[in-house]
Amino acid sequence: MVSTRSQRQSFLGPDSEKVLSSGVVVIVGLCGGGSHIAQLLAHIGVDNYKIVDPDFVDDPNLNRMVGSTPNDAIEKRPKVEVIRDLILRIRPAANIEMFATKWQENHLPLRSCTAVFGCVDSFASRNELEAYCRRFLIPYIDIGMDVHELASGRYMISGQVIASIPGQPCMKCMGVLTEERISQEAQRYGDAGDRPQVIWPNGVLASTAVGMFVSLLTPWDKQSELVPFIEYDGNSPTLKPSSVIAILDKECKHYPIPKGLGDPMWNGIASDFLKQANALQREAD
Predict the structure, then answer these.
(1) Cis omega before residue 14 (within 30°)?
(2) In sequence order, what are the residues at sequence separation of 6 or more whose Cβ sits closer than 8 angstroms to the Cβ of residue 223?
């Protein structure tokens, strides 16, 4: 008998449930964007997680961290525990490894995964995380959102979702990571206030990022190439492919893939999922 879940997800491919449940996902940063992503991944059937965040819940997090409660802030619960509980309410049998540290202090677990989601606060942090994922040939999906004040006294919400795939254009190629941005980003930090009401743009970006992940692993949209750079205008509101895509080179010049680069564990774990996805693609064709 076909399960209800299989019927709902049949458009993703006949083995999509197995592929998604077997994948290993790392989420770095568990507040606004990361909490949304964890919830979404649990609902689509992902069962294996490595969640990374050194912080605890405090009052300013409550209006944007999915799954958090006032008691979590009072008790100063680690964010990894709150997100673990959120996932387990949806997927009781999920396997969850928690790292209540900076990812750099526990980086080895990142190497044995299918993909890394980056939900970090700065361009400098994105630069470090993307460089690590490139070194070990791990697909990296990044979300970023910004609220800044215009000269008129109005505010603008903007953001992006980027799939940084080994061998393909990186965030430096796309112009998202530049030395100027990295050095100047702190000047606008805090424009949204101490309790930013940004749960809805975070939700839009997180949903788009999870859609990219699903597209990487399943052949549901075999006629289209993955759009690696999507821009978000929260004032319009609109999501659209970045115009930068049209002028990008096919290969990344910042992180070339010379012989021998990567981690042997990639061949045994992460690439199996991409190979399986490619096999499903060929069957669909």
Answers:
(1) no
(2) none
- Tokens 């990812």, residue? 103
pLDDT single digits (tens) 210-238: 999 999 988 777 767 889 999 999 999 99
Specify the pTM.
0.85
**Mean pLDDT along residues 267-285:** 48
For residue 138, which of 162, 118, 163, 113 has the smallest C-alpha distance?
A: 113
Residues 150, 119, 190, CA angle at the centre, nearest 5°?
A: 30
Give the Cα-Cα-Cα angle 33, 38, 43 (nearest 5 degrees): 125
Distances (CA, A) of 41 to 86, 191, 207, 254: 11, 30, 9, 30
Cβ-based neighbour number of residue 225 at 10 Å: 8
Q: Which of 182, 173, 96, 110 is nearest to 140 (CA)?
A: 110
Instruction: Provide the pLDDT for residue 257.
Output: 79
